[in-house]
Automatic annotation (TrEMBL), chain A:
Domain called N-acetyltransferase: residue spans: 13-156
GO molecular function, one term: acyltransferase activity, transferring groups other than amino-acyl groups
Organism: Rhodovulum strictum
Protein name: GNAT family N-acetyltransferase
Classification via InterPro entries: Acyl_CoA_acyltransferase (IPR016181), GNAT_dom (IPR000182)
Keywords: Transferase
Pfam families: Acetyltransf_1
From TrEMBL, chain B:
Residue ranges of the TM segments: none
Coiled-coil intervals, chain numbering: none
Protein name: Rrf2 family transcriptional regulator
GO MF, one annotated term: DNA-binding transcription factor activity
One Pfam family, short name: Rrf2
Database matches in PANTHER family: HTH-TYPE TRANSCRIPTIONAL REGULATOR YWGB-RELATED (PTHR33221:SF15), WINGED HELIX-TURN-HELIX TRANSCRIPTIONAL REGULATOR, RRF2 FAMILY (PTHR33221)
Entry GO CC: cytosol
Length: 156, 151
């Protein structure tokens, strides 16, 4: 991807761990994207990343004028026999700052942290109809993994 | 999953042309590389031309050029020009469908179709070219390269 992008297309961002003051912005962006505010969820992620900084990562991208995106992931091990691997479970980029590699820089940043923690694989789970975000992860070389996600209604 | 022959012709043509968008190639050149029928490929290229994905240039040495957007055109867009990949529950009804077991079978097959659609629609031509570049070793291409070096 980088080879096809001119430098001016790429947003200059700094990527840091999420601070408490970032939570309201992340919650608002996520609510704008998904239509469902979930403040408790974001706070739990924040607290998890603060208490286990080598395993759980919650990062925000900032440019000169403010925040432009976030990503959350953690290292999980041995669920159904799976070797330790990095999981990404949330990403969001401010709609006015999309297609300028903010998502890519967040993805690279969380993958770097996974590598530093010693894992060699990154995984995620996306709704089938979420074509934009699926295309994004595909563009980064992700393919279907060896696990199948199953579910059922509990009252069936 | 097996794709129809026309679909495979189309995918190879698009991928080959999109891998070097400035270059023009004739149907015969693409057909030779992928071991396809030139006649069949010429027909497929006309369909791709009507869909605005390739452009034919006239005159001696004329050939085809990719003119789509490789970062937005996905595999499902191409496949669906040649064969239907139905969204869940929208395919043609088949004998037995109105029974319980028929419905159960539809559900299971629908699961597979949904996964197929999600896979094809999330892989753009650009992503596909990246996947191809990561494949370490392709005997046919090595042969073509060696033959070209000898010419
Ligand atoms: C997916 C998302 C994170 C991408 O962020 P971004 O900063 O725009 O991504 P990038 O600019 O780094 O794009 C990287 C690649 O992804 C792919 N991509 C991104 N947007 C795309 C689109 N609209 N269509 C097709 N591919 C796309 C492209 O291959 C792109 O490469 P390119 O820039 O060379 O074309 C962003 O669109 C987003 O936040 N979407 C909503 C996410 C969501 O639903 N989250 C739910 C809560 S978890």
């Amino acid at each position: 991807m980088a080879e096809l992008q001119t430098l001016s297309d790429t947003a200059q961002v700094v990527i840091d761990p999420v601070a408490e003051a970032d939570l309201a912005w992340i919650e608002a962006l996520d609510a704008q994207i998904t239509g469902r505010p979930k403040p408790d969820y974001w706070r739990r992620l924040f607290e998890g990343a603060r208490s286990e900084p080598g395993r759980s990562f919650f990062l925000v991208a900032r440019n000169g004028s403010g925040r432009v995106g976030f990503i959350a992931g953690e290292i999980r091990a041995w669920e159904f026999g799976s070797e330790p691997c990095g999981w990404i479970f949330a990403i969001g980029v401010d709609p006015d700052n999309r297609l300028r590699s903010v998502g890519t820089q967040l993805f690279d940043a969380v993958c770097d942290r996974f590598r530093q923690a010693g894992v060699t694989k990154v995984r995620t789970m996306i709704a089938r109809e979420a074509q934009l975000i699926l295309s994004f992860f595909r563009a980064h070389g992700m393919m279907a993994g060896p696990f199948v996600e199953l579910e059922k209604d509990l009252d069936e | 999953m097996k794709l129809q022959l026309a679909t495979r012709h189309a995918l190879f043509a698009i991928l080959e042309l999109a891998s070097e968008p400035e270059r023009q190639l004739s149907a015969a050149e693409i057909a030779e590389k992928y071991d396809l029928s030139t006649n069949h490929l010429a027909k497929v290229l006309r369909t791709l031309g009507r869909a605005g994905l390739v452009e034919a240039s006239r005159g001696v040495g004329g050939g085809y050029r990719f003119c789509g957007n490789a970062k937005r055109l996905n595999l499902l867009d191409i496949v669906q020009l040649f064969e239907p990949i139905w969204p869940i529950g929208q395919g043609m009804s088949e004998p037995g469908d109105r029974t319980r077991k028929g419905q159960a079978l539809r559900r299971v097959l629908g699961e597979i179709e949904e996964a197929t659609r999600a896979t094809l629609s999330s892989i753009t031509v650009d992503t596909m070219l990246k996947i191809a570049r990561r494949i370490p070793d392709a005997p046919a291409e090595d042969m073509i390269r060696r033959a070209a070096a000898l010419r």
